[in-house]
Design a protein that fits this description.
Helix content is 71%, strand content 2%. It is mostly helical. It has a single domain, classed as Heme Oxygenase, Chain A. A two-stranded antiparallel sheet has the order 1-2. It starts with a strand and ends with a helix.
Length: 206
């Protein structure tokens, strides 16, 4: 049998039977839809988003990458076992660091305190959960926005529309999040981080 999600209206399997990777996305896709329709992204799609709003939008994204890279560096040293979770943190850290070193400067974002709280107070697998919204939502948004090569923001779309987050997250989440309680906490944290991503877009053009 299937359940109806209260926010999205979509059908999904009971928690005990489902793929965690897909469950987290389906359970929170309503936030993805709300994020897609924020004024910032809609004006980006139309090609008339003012430059200062776009700069504000990008600065928030840049600062996330800087601070998250530092936290991943700490997590890869903190997590020694299990090996696959250590390897995940190592791989994500190197990926973030490569990009950060070539493009980034430090800024401050309030919502990064949520990442830090998860890092310090939850099991390491939940830090992986906290990283997933950024990886999956931006890919989804870039593919949803209808921009062509004449748009001032086409390069943003192209740089975000290709990726395979399932290669990094799916098996790991399904392996370590097995109980209803674990999945419920994962969904709570995932939704919190999805809302944080939404707020980045919403605050870029209020």
């Amino acid at each position: 049998y299937y359940l109806i999600h209260p926010f999205t209206g979509l059908c999904y399997e009971p928690v005990n039977n489902i793929d965690v990777y897909e469950y987290l996305w389906v359970s929170n896709q309503d936030i993805a839809e709300h994020t897609l329709h924020t004024p910032c992204l809609q004006h980006m799609q139309l090609g008339d988003l003012q430059a200062d709003n776009y700069v504000k939008f990008i600065i928030q994204d840049i600062n996330y990458l800087v601070v998250a890279t530092d936290m991943l560096d700490e997590m890869r040293n903190k997590v020694e076992v299990p090996q696959d979770l250590h390897d995940f943190m190592e791989d994500r850290c190197e990926s973030y660091k490569t990009y950060a070193e070539s493009t980034l400067k430090e800024f401050n974002l309030n919502y990064l305190s949520d990442y830090k709280d998860i890092m310090e107070n939850q099991d390491p697998i939940y830090f992986a959960v906290a990283l997933l919204p950024c990886s999956r939502l931006w890919l989804w948004l870039a593919n949803q926005l209808n921009e062509n090569c004449c748009s001032a923001y086409f390069t943003w779309k192209m740089s975000n529309m290709c990726g395979h987050p399932e290669q990094h997250f799916k098996a790991l989440l399904n392996k370590y999040l097995t109980t209803p309680e674990q999945k419920e906490l994962a969904n709570k944290l995932f939704r919190q981080q999805m809302n944080n991503e939404h707020d980045v877009c919403a605050s870029s053009l209020e």
